[in-house]
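dude i think i finally got it to work??
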Amino acid sequence: MSLSPDCLTNQKMAQRTWHTFFVLILIFTILSIVGDVLSTSPGPWYENLPAVTMDYKVHIDAGKEDCYFQYVQPGATFYASYQVLKGGDGMCGFAVRHPNGQIVHPYEWRQSAEYADQTSSGGYYAVCIDNQFSRFAGKLVNLYLSVIRYDMWEKYAKEVEELDMNIKNFTHSIQFVEHNINEILQYQYHSRARESRDYNLLQDNNAYVLRWSFVQILAIAATGTLQVYFVRKLFEVKDNSSKTRI
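look at this
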């Protein structure tokens, strides 16, 4: 018994419809599982890392204040510093607010400042850069933030000790190296910030010297032209001299 072409076409269309429906159901199920996993995650992936360092160059408009928030795990070390690279008088305000709402670093109108909390209680720190005293000049600021969890090394040591491996001395060496590396990173940040500030200062001084040199050249040229004009006027002889009066 043979099927007509129309019946074969209808069967193929039905198979394609069920295949498409099955694929849609599979995609919807996968997206639902991924959404549930993301919704139940405690926070961003970088919050559970042993160390997080961030280096920003931000522009603060005149008369404005910008605040940046950084999550710190309980027991971690939090470090924040800033340096004004360019703009106005080269200074701005800097303050750090603890997660409990207390101002742990009060506002100071300076060119650079830093704050460190060796054993944080955890939470979101607010780092604010204030340029409200400067009404006309914006500021380019280098902001450096770091969160270091030294307790993570102890966790790794316990996990290895469960495998009957004694690496206590090795763990202390790693902690010592990690501590020195973080200090080197902070020193490199300060060096880069000073280099950038010096470069911007050289550019401003160069523009200032060129601008005033051009003005002085114009002034000297104008003065010389006036002097030549008046000297020539002094020695100018008129053809129709006046008759001598009796």
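The radius of gyration is 36 Å.
im so relieved honestly
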